[in-house]
């Protein structure tokens, strides 16, 4: 599956060599406790958690590390899920909805802690986040959301039109200002994590595909494209949005619960006059399709959104020029004094679930396997949660909050 357009900002700016250069040749027969399939940001975060717990882990990727959808990510790190908290409470109940939000909040600080152990800062910046109404009709919904978040202890403030004008300099009828959010460079983080883990003994093999999997009685046997075999007590599927195809091929239940769509992102040339508000805060709106903006290295802006229900790669990529125009128009409407010149625009395909929550844990069709599918707008924070759940499942066979992310919920 083609998960993104060929060139993205992170690939263009890769200043580090591929992390796995120093990994050994895959032996004809390799054994491990856990085989992670997929070397994107999810695979890296799961590997980090398992490796630190002393679990013997091997990771394979059919491409090179981080070259799936990770390379397209705009990596806004937020606790806010695609489905607003007050609506998620209606869908899944108060306890699970609040817990899902709190887990994403916890993930922001866990990411800060992880980045602190690595050899680069991975562009990690703690930020505020402004979720603003694109039109007056959205104010009631947003106000309800503000009240729900305040009630459950999230650090939020309500900004009316005057306050948004004063603090952000643009016109919007109202919005929620969250104190807790961040941004990072997903590709840098992925590469830095693999460097860290390979230095500490993680076995990583690129350009290695699982061609045949025999889910035996006590462990799985995975035959690779190099005609080698890996024996693993557990497999972790960190195969991103391509997992749906595998499930459809296997006629596995719930495969159709995932809805694929495409999204667009743009990075500007360095700005002479970056708005101060954007240095402090991510911004995103209630529009459909929605719009968001963050800063990126060298005084650039990264803009995104303009989602479309398109999966075909040619059709998706053909829309890049028109999406570029729309993203630029939006930022110009908000900040007419900013001269935002496009540097690069790209597209990525991603998956949504009905409740905005990921699929994490076991699937009845795949014995000895765990899934780490951080679908929705919060893929990276969900991957942190997935890593934690999977370590718990492996060590204890259970996890207190795994139920709300299960297939078939
Ligand atoms: C444009 C865009 C913007 C985004 N913005 C945000 C954001 O602002 N905030 C946020 O939190 N998230 C965001 N996301 C989502 C986040 O980036 C995803 O969670 C992430 O890209 C998915 O990572 P992954 O590692 O699960 O999948 P991938 O990066 O796709 O990695 C999966 C890997 O599995 C490998 N693979 C697949 N099948 C096999 C196989 N059979 N054998 C071996 N290897 C295999 C692939 O080669 C690939 O490297 C965004 C995504 C996109 C596309």
TrEMBL record:
Q: Where is the FAD dependent oxidoreductase domain?
A: 33-390
Q: Pfam families, alphabetically?
A: DAO
- Taxonomy, superkingdom: Bacteria
A GO-annotated cellular component:
cytoplasm
Q: Which SUPFAM superfamilies match?
A: FAD/NAD(P)-binding domain
* Protein known as: FAD dependent oxidoreductase domain-containing protein
State the organism of origin: Arsenicibacter rosenii
Its organism's taxonomic lineage begins at: Bacteria, Pseudomonadati, Bacteroidota, Cytophagia, Cytophagales
